[in-house]
Specification:
Receptor for adenosine. The activity of this receptor is mediated by G proteins which inhibit adenylyl cyclase. It holds the Pfam family 7tm_1. One of its GO terms (molecular function) is G protein-coupled adenosine receptor activity. It is a multi-pass membrane protein. The protein is an all-alpha fold and 375 residues long. It has one domain: Rhodopsin 7-helix transmembrane proteins (Rhopdopsin 7-helix transmembrane proteins). It contains 14 helices and two strands; from the N terminus they run ααβααααβαααααααα. Strands 1-2 form a two-stranded antiparallel ribbon. Helix 1 packs antiparallel against helix 2, helix 2 runs antiparallel to helix 10 and helix 10 packs across helix 11. The chain is globular, with a radius of gyration of 31 Å. It starts with 6 loop residues before the first helix and ends with a helix.
C-alpha cells in the first residue's frame, strides 16, 4: 500500500492542478486570439504563439508528470529521465522564444522602414523551427549519456532492472544542470535579452525626444505603440526570470554545497514558480496588449456566452498603427492613370493620311526634310 500523502503534498498537488488548468485555458485563448484576429498575425505574435504552445505543453503534460513524480512513483530510469528531459526541452524553447521576440522588437525599432523586407513571415517561421530544434538538442542531452545512471550504479543505488524512485535530482546530473543548462543556455540569453530591451527603450526614448512630425503621419504614434508593446514583453521576460532563477539557484546549491540542507517547502515553491510562469503570460497579454484583450472579449462573448459579435479584422484604425513607410515614398505623387482610366470628353479626332508639316517636327527631323527638298 502506498503511503498516504502529507498535507504539504496535497496542497502542492492542488496548486499544480489549478496552475495546469489556468495555463492550458489561457494559452489556448492566446493561440485562438491570433487565429481570429488578423491584426495579430505578425512576426512578433508568431513567436508569442510558439511560447504559448510550450506553455500549453507545460500545463497539459509536464505538470501531470510532476504530480506523478511528487508521490514517489517507481519507474524505469530512462522513463523518468524522459520526463525530466521533456521539462528541459519546453523550458529551453520558452527561453529561445523570448530571445526571438526581443530580437524582433529590436529590429522593428532599429530599422522601421525596412523591417518588413528583412523580417518576412518565412524567415520568422524558420526562426521558430530553429528555436525548437535547438531546444530539443539542449534538453535531450541527458538522454545521450549526460545523466546520473553511472553514479547510481557505482553506489548501488539502483536495482539491476534500472527501477528507481522517479525524482528529478535522481536522474539529471547537476553538472549538466548548472554548467551546461544554466551557465550556457539560460543565463546568457537572459542577460542578452536584458541588454536588447535596454537598447530598445533607449532608441525609442531617443526618437520620441526628437518630436519629428510630417504632414502625413506622426512618428511619435508609432514609437509610442512600440514602447507600450516593448514594456509588456519586457514584463513577460521579467516574470520568466524571477520564476526560473530560484530553481536554478537551488541547483547551484546542490552542486556546490552537497551537504547543505534544502527545506522541502522551498523546493515546492521553486517548482510552483516555474510552472506558474506558464499561466501568467496570457494574463499579461490581456491587461497590457489591447488587441489581445479585444480578441479575448470576442472569444468570451461569442463562444462562451453565445452572443453574435462582429468578426475581428484589420480595421482601418489598426492599419494606421502599422509601421510607416519610407518618408521619401509618402510624399510621392500618385502613379499616373492608365489610358483606360483617363476620362475622354473631347470629340473624336480624325486621322488624316499624311499632311504633316516638316517644320513642325523635331529640329533634326525638320532639317533632314529641308535638305532633301533642296537637293
Amino acid at each position: 500500500m502506498p503511503e498516504p500523502l502529507s498535507p504539504s503534498q496535497l496542497l502542492y498537488i492542488g496548486m499544480e492542478v489549478a496552475i495546469a488548468v489556468t495555463s492550458v485555458v489561457g494559452n489556448v485563448m492566446v493561440v485562438w486570439a491570433v487565429r481570429i484576429n488578423r491584426s495579430l498575425r505578425d512576426t512578433t505574435f508568431c513567436f508569442i504563439v510558439s511560447l504559448a504552445l510550450a506553455d500549453i505543453a507545460v500545463g497539459a503534460l509536464v505538470i501531470p508528470l510532476a504530480i506523478t513524480i511528487s508521490i514517489g512513483l517507481q519507474t524505469h530510469f530512462y522513463s523518468c529521465l524522459l520526463v525530466a528531459c521533456t521539462v528541459l526541452v519546453l523550458t529551453q524553447s520558452s527561453i529561445l522564444a523570448l530571445l526571438a521576440i526581443a530580437v524582433d522588437r529590436y529590429l522593428r525599432v532599429k530599422i522601421p522602414t525596412s523591417y518588413r523586407r528583412v523580417v518576412t513571415p518565412r524567415r520568422a517561421g524558420l526562426a521558430v523551427v530553429l528555436c525548437w530544434t535547438v531546444a530539443f538538442m539542449v534538453g535531450l542531452m541527458p538522454m545521450l549519456g549526460w545523466n546520473n545512471l553511472s553514479g547510481l550504479q557505482q553506489n548501488s543505488s539502483i536495482s539491476p532492472d534500472l527501477v528507481i524512485t522517479c525524482q528529478f535530482e535522481n536522474v539529471i546530473s547537476m553538472d549538466y544542470m548548472v554548467y551546461f543548462n544554466f551557465f550556457s543556455w539560460v543565463l546568457p540569453p537572459l542577460l542578452l535579452m536584458l541588454v536588447i530591451y535596454a537598447e530598445i527603450f533607449y532608441m525609442i526614448h531617443k526618437q520620441l525626444n526628437k518630436k519629428v512630425t510630417t504632414s502625413h503621419s506622426d512618428p511619435n504614434k508609432y514609437y509610442d505603440k512600440e514602447l507600450n508593446l516593448a514594456k509588456s514583453l519586457a514584463l513577460v521576460l521579467f516574470l520568466f526570470a524571477i520564476s526560473w532563477l530560484p530553481l536554478h539557484i537551488l541547483n547551484c546549491i546542490t552542486l556546490f554545497c552537497p551537504h547543505c540542507q534544502k527545506p522541502m517547502f522551498l523546493i515546492y515553491i521553486a517548482i510552483l514558480l516555474t510552472h506558474g510562469n506558464s499561466a501568467v503570460n496570457p494574463i499579461v497579454y490581456a491587461f497590457r496588449i489591447k488587441k489581445f484583450r479585444t480578441a479575448f472579449q470576442k472569444i468570451w462573448e461569442q463562444y462562451i456566452c453565445c452572443k453574435d459579435t462582429p468578426a475581428l479584422d484589420m480595421q482601418p484604425s489598426e492599419r494606421k498603427e502599422m509601421p510607416d513607410p519610407d518618408p521619401r515614398q509618402v510624399a510621392a505623387p500618385p502613379p499616373p492613370l492608365s489610358p483606360k482610366e483617363v476620362p475622354n470628353n473631347d470629340p473624336p479626332k480624325l486621322h488624316l493620311p499624311t499632311c504633316e508639316n516638316p517644320l513642325e517636327q523635331k529640329p533634326k527631323q525638320a532639317l533632314s526634310v529641308l535638305e532633301q527638298n533642296t537637293v
